[in-house]
Amino acid sequence: MIVKPISRIAVAAAALLLGLAFAFPLWRIALKAPQYPEGLGLLISVNRITGVSPQDLNSINNLNHYIGMKRIQPDDIPELRFMPWIVVGLMATGLGVAAAGRRGLLAAWVGLFAVGAMAGIADFYKWGYDYGHNLAADAIIKVPGMSYQPPVIGTKQLLNFSATSWPALGGWAAVLSLMIGVGVLVLEHRRARHPALAPA
Question: Which residue in 15, 33, 93, 139 is deepest, having the highest Cβ count within 10 Å?
Fold first, then answer.
């Protein structure tokens, strides 16, 4: 059992924190180049992809056309249809774990959360790889050996564009939620093994 009520409260807070994924984007990709000093950007949310500014997505698609990259069409990305259900499922099960107060269920929830997060990052990489490597043969601009996969995280130079990718507020909320879950699990495991050494 999760003995301490504070542990249950922390798990419930971690589950509810995931709700920020519906209010704020998960990820942001920013592009800067001399001809775009103000920059262009994409916001990847749990159920949509939009430009940082209203015309950014269209501008990026127009630029991508020259290098043979296919258009970014949010309606063609199935993950945007089922990701909201995954987040809702994690929230609901997290609240259930908090209510049940069982350490085994907490471990299962944290494990499921971690696997889901890694699968999401892997899918993001695969998505970027497909767009950046599978280029049209009749592209207007061709650079031998050049691919245009944006970084999953960090900064990368793509021709004259500097592409930067980092979690946005919704993504950081998910990271914090997982960290809280892991922290509670570690503390509860320590308490179970060494009751006398556990904090009061």
Answer: 15
